[in-house]
Amino acid sequence: MATEYELTLNDYLLMFRRRAAYAGIAFVVILAAAAIAAIVIPPVYESSGTILVESSDIPTNLVPDAMDSYVANRIDVIQQQVMTQSNLFKLIHKYNLYANQHPALSPTELLDRMRDSISVEPIDSANRRRGDRTIAFKVSFDYGRPDIANKVANDLITLFL
Question: Whole-structure pTM over 0.90, yes or no?
Fold first, then answer.
C-alpha cells in the first residue's frame, strides 16, 4: 500500500519557480490593462448636498409612521417639479453642459443624460428608537469637471429648497 507524500515548503517553492514566468506575464498584463484603463477612462466628479427635513415636535405615540410616507411622497413631488424640462434645459444652457456632444444629441437625449447624472437618495434616520423623526435626502450631480459639477449641484439644491 502506497503512503501519501506530504508536500514541504521546498516542494511549493519549486512549483512556484517552474510557474514564475506565467505568474510574471499575468501580473504585467493585468498591470498594463489597469494603467491603460486609468488613462483612457475620463474622470467623473460627484458633487452633492444633503437637505434636512425636520418634522414637527409631536410625539410619535400620537402621530403614526404615516408622517414618514408623507415626507417621502412630498420629496417625490418636489423632485418631479425640479426635474422638469425647462429647469434642466436652463441648467444645461447656463453651464454649457455636454457642449462637446451637443450637435450629436437630440434634446431628449440631452435631458436623459442630465437626468442620469442627477441622483436623489433618501437618508433614513438612525435615531428612530429615541423618537427622533428627522428625515434627510441627498442630491448629487455627476460631471467630468469638478467646478461645473459643484455649481450645478448647488443650483439643484437651491431648486429643491
Answer: no
